Amino acid sequence: MNHNLDPIPFYDEKDNLLDEIVGNNMAGKCCLKVISYAYKEMTVEEFNELITTKPVESAEFREEIENDLIYLGTFGVDDPLIEDICQTVQLIRYGKHVEDDEEAENQVNVRMVTGDHIETAKRVAIKAGIVTESEANTPGVCMTGEEFTDKIGGFDTIYDSVKGRWEVKFDS
User: What is the CA radius of gyration of the chain?
Assistant: First the structure.
């Protein structure tokens, strides 16, 4: 907001700075859950039309709803891992607790699915013992939601007006 408390539009040139501050520093290096606040002025009628014409999980919906936002601010929250998460991951992966110097066999491939920023997800997965530092930087091991969607194959979202919700139909 400016000195008169009028909203200042969130322009594209700020996107890179915000992504650097939020993505690389707050989320990546500090491993914080990052929450940014912004709003868009639209009528209820405009919003209702949008949710019935575009799937809410689609890129088209996000493009429309996230365009011309008024940025309010960003903050980070520490969200510590559960104390014994590394032991839990080991039990899932090996069926037993494994000492640091012990070689374990019969490994189950453990992965994490999250909506967190990719750098936060990598840091959490490393801290939890889900992936190693080198695995986190290996292409295809950690991926964004969009990359994951590409990997699982095609699907369509169809609005069911009788049920009043969107449904996902996967390609065979």
Answer: 21
pLDDT per residue, tens digit, the chain (172 aa), is 555 666 555 554 555 666 666 666 676 677 777 788 889 999 999 999 999 999 888 888 989 998 888 888 888 888 888 999 999 998 988 888 877 666 777 688 888 877 777 888 888 899 898 988 888 888 888 888 778 878 887 777 888 889 888 888 887 6
C-alpha distances in angstroms, 114 versus 16, 74, 111, 119, 145? 23, 20, 10, 11, 8
Q: Exposed/middle/buried for 93, CB within 10 Å: 0-12, 13-18, 19+?
A: middle
- Count CB-CB contacts under 10 A for residue 91: 14
Cα(100)–Cα(112) distance, integer angstroms: 22
Question: How far apart (Å, rounded) are the C-alpha atoms in residues 45 and 154?
Answer: 31
